[in-house]
């Protein structure tokens, strides 16, 4: 059985090497001029728009997450739990992430504006699952 696997392994190795060489020979696109810079995001204003209670539903269970502002930074946690700082992700408008101190779980958060331009939704990704949460109107 070992002898029949060697040719296959050699073929796959050679194929991988050839595809690497071919990829290296493909000319890259010429550098384009940088797009005009958008005006910088006013984080204080953005955080004020995000702050609130959001309801996430997963497999018939509802989980609340409270997003708050402390010292100009965004924090979030379910009610009664210690809030974690949620940091903006560079290059992703309305994108944030956090690694939870207790569990080490990494969460990606993408806040979404509705057709009226109001932030009313949060898409949370963790461990390959994507859950949508909606801001609860007060």
What does this protein look like?
The chain is of the alpha+beta class. The chain contains two helices and eight strands. The chain has helices spanning 2-25, 43-50; strands at residues 52-58, 61-70, 73-77, 84-88, 95-99, 106-113, 119-126, 129-135. An eight-stranded antiparallel barrel has the order 1-2-3-4-5-6-7-8. The longest helix has 24 residues, at 2-25. The chain is globular and about 40 Å long. The model is unreliable at 1-26 and 31-36 (pLDDT under 50).
SSE layout:
Elements: H1 2-25, H2 43-50, E1 52-58, E2 61-70, E3 73-77, E4 84-88, E5 95-99, E6 106-113, E7 119-126, E8 129-135
Antiparallel strand pairs: 1-2, 1-8, 2-3, 3-4, 4-5, 5-6, 6-7, 7-8
Essential attributes:
alpha+beta; single chain; 138 residues
Summarize, please.
It is built from two helices and eight strands, in the order H-H-E-E-E-E-E-E-E-E.
Query: In sequence order, what are the helices and strands, one letter per element?
Result: HHEEEEEEEE
CA-CA gap between termini: 68 Å
- Mean pLDDT score: 78
- Strand segment count: 8
Specify the structural class: alpha+beta
Question: Could you name the ranges where pLDDT drops below 50 across 5 or more consecutive residues?
Answer: 1-26, 31-36
Strand order of the largest sheet: 1-2-3-4-5-6-7-8
Roughly what fraction of the amino acids lie in strands?
A: 35-45%
| Quaternary assembly | single chain
Biggest sheet descriptor: 8 strands, antiparallel, barrel
Shape: globular
Helix content, binned percent: 10-25%
Using the CA coordinates, give the radius of gyration: 23 Å
Number of separate helices: 2
């Amino acid at each position: 059985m070992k002898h029949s696997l060697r040719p296959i392994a050699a073929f796959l190795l050679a194929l991988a090497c050839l595809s690497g060489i071919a990829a290296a020979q493909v000319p890259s696109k010429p550098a384009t001029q940088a797009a005009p810079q958008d005006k910088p995001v006013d984080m204080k204003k953005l955080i004020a728009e995000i702050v609130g209670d959001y309801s996430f539903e997963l497999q018939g269970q509802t989980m609340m997450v409270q997003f708050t502002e402390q010292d100009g930074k965004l924090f979030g946690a379910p009610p009664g739990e210690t809030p974690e700082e949620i940091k903006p992700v560079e290059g992703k408008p309305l994108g944030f992430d956090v690694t939870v101190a207790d569990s080490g779980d990494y969460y990606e958060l993408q806040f979404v504006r509705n057709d009226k331009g109001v932030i009313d939704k949060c898409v949370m990704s963790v461990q390959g699952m994507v859950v949508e949460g909606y801001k609860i109107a007060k």
